[in-house]
Structures are given as structure tokens and as C-alpha cells.
Design goal:
The chain has 174 residues and is of the alpha+beta class. It is built from three helices and 15 strands. Strand 3 and strand 4 form a beta hairpin.
């Protein structure tokens, strides 16, 4: 019988970090050879004397790490890590495809993404059939009279919301 080595299975996890330290946490963890992903979005910020484009974390207070069991405690020893996002007492595993979908979404130019922690009302599953998010699947949600597609990161309790024309979606049929 062959033994499976669980020490080398890598999974994505979400890590809650100290306020406004997402970039510092990413640098520190990458210095320790831990694979990280910090979703950033460019936003135009207004100060009293000027405007400036800045890169802001898409989900404040969180970074993603792809680790094996052996590196689990090493992440928590970071100066900025607070805890793993947990589900039923253990660190929640984020499926690879959700991280990839988030990367695809962030790679689109001129796409404004709004992140909300609100529990979205259940709706129809839809496929995006045109536009920059073609190929993604999400739930159709009606907010303030506009139709939007929500791509959920369910383990975090967050949803990434993007406004898409009704013509660019179709109801998912099994």
C-alpha cells in the first residue's frame, strides 16, 4: 500500500492580517518563499490638493497563501498575520479555480470591481457570454435597479460584484 505525503499537498488559504498591512505581509511571506496572492485594484484617490492613482487591496485585511501543512505555522509567525479564515474549526481551503477566476477578473482593463460582505439574495446562476468576463459563472443579483453578476468567494463570505449588461449573460442550464 502506497503512503500519501500530506506534507507536500499545496492549498490556497485566506489569511487575515493586521489593518493596512496587506502589502507588508505579502513581502514578508514571499521573502520566506511562501507563495502569496494579494488582489490589488487601481483606484483614483482624491486628496485636498491632488488626485493620484493608487493600488488598493481588493479585499481589505486579507491575503491568500498557497502552502503545504509544513508551512502552516510559519505563516502565523509573520509579523502581520493574525489568523487563518476558518470554516468549521479548520483553515478554509480556497479552490484553485476561485483564485484563478479572481486573477482573470483583475487582469481586465477598465473593470471596476466592488467587493461587498452583504449576504446576497439567492438568484439564478448565469454564464457570462460576452465582454471581458466571458466564461465566468455567477449569480444574478438585482441591486438598486441594475443587474449585476456576482462571482462569489464563498469561503470568505465576500462576493466580487461587477456590473454587466443583461445582453452579456444567459441563464445557466444544466
Amino acid at each position: 500500500m502506497e503512503k500519501i505525503n500530506l506534507q507536500k499537498e499545496y492549498h490556497w488559504h485566506a489569511v487575515y492580517v493586521k489593518s493596512r498591512t496587506e502589502k507588508k505581509a505579502q513581502i514578508e511571506l514571499e521573502f520566506q518563499n511562501i507563495e502569496t496572492f494579494l488582489p490589488l485594484q487601481r483606484k483614483l484617490r482624491q486628496w485636498s490638493d491632488r488626485k493620484k492613482w493608487v493600488e488598493m487591496p481588493l479585499i481589505s485585511g486579507y491575503i491568500f497563501v498557497r502552502i503545504c501543512r509544513k508551512e502552516y505555522d510559519l505563516v502565523l509567525q509573520s509579523n502581520y498575520a493574525v489568523s487563518y479564515v476558518r470554516f468549521e474549526g479548520t483553515a478554509a481551503v480556497i479552490p484553485d479555480n476561485q483564485i484563478e477566476n479572481l486573477k482573470v477578473m483583475l487582469s481586465q482593463d477598465n473593470l471596476e470591481i466592488e467587493v461587498t460582505q452583504k449576504n446576497l439574495a439567492p438568484g439564478q446562476l448565469v454564464d457570462v457570454i460576452a465582454g471581458p468576463l466571458i466564461g465566468l459563472r455567477g449569480k444574478l443579483v438585482f441591486i438598486k435597479g441594475k443587474s449585476k453578476v456576482a462571482v462569489s468567494l464563498e469561503q470568505l463570505g465576500y462576493s466580487a460584484m461587477v456590473e454587466i449588461s443583461v445582453d452579456d449573460i444567459r441563464v445557466y442550464e444544466k
